[in-house]
Amino acid sequence: MQGQPHFLAHRLEKCYTGAVHDVLREAGHRHFGLPHEIRPLDPSFRLAGPAFTFSGRFEEGMDPHETVLRWTEMLTIAPAGCVLVCQPNNDTVAHMGELSAETLKLRGIRGYVVDGGCRDTEFILRIGFKVFCRYVTPMDIVGCWVPERYGEPVTVGPATIKTDDWIIGDRDGVIAIPGDVVESTLEETERVMHTESMVRKSILAGVDPKDAYLEYGKF
Which fold has domain 4-14+29-179? Predict the structure, then answer.
């Protein structure tokens, strides 16, 4: 994932989820927002990039060696430049931790979005790897959880995310953008943000908010 995707990700990271939401809604898209419980470990995190999806399976009594081996295989499979998106089908253990975050960052993974848990958060925050998760816990996956089904669509709340759809996340939450409309969505979002700046300048200059809305058609 080089060249154009990297350039698009850089531009998209400068946008914000509220503006992207409005553009997708006005274009007729639905069910693109992930559950509001999925939050960044650090509210300052801004994340954007093409998704690479996988899911997982929880089962008590798995072989501890096998669970760790399967997890390390995931770290190898994840393609550089992507945002990993995981549906763990589990809400009891952490699906990201210290060594994994450092490995993924070193390999050029842009960030990690999981409908589940994270641990070792102090270390992850220190290295700046961008994790968005539902909860934190010290409990790990050893002997009870494995990743699987790479590149297949995953459902997170109302959103179904396919590999090569795009992810944008910030302190307000996470949105999935269909891959076939990411460029048009980005261009329209940039236009909307420019218009919003014009509305803001007008209001700060003393223009009535209603008049500003009627002039620019945006508020």
Answer: Glucose Oxidase; domain 1 (3.50.30)
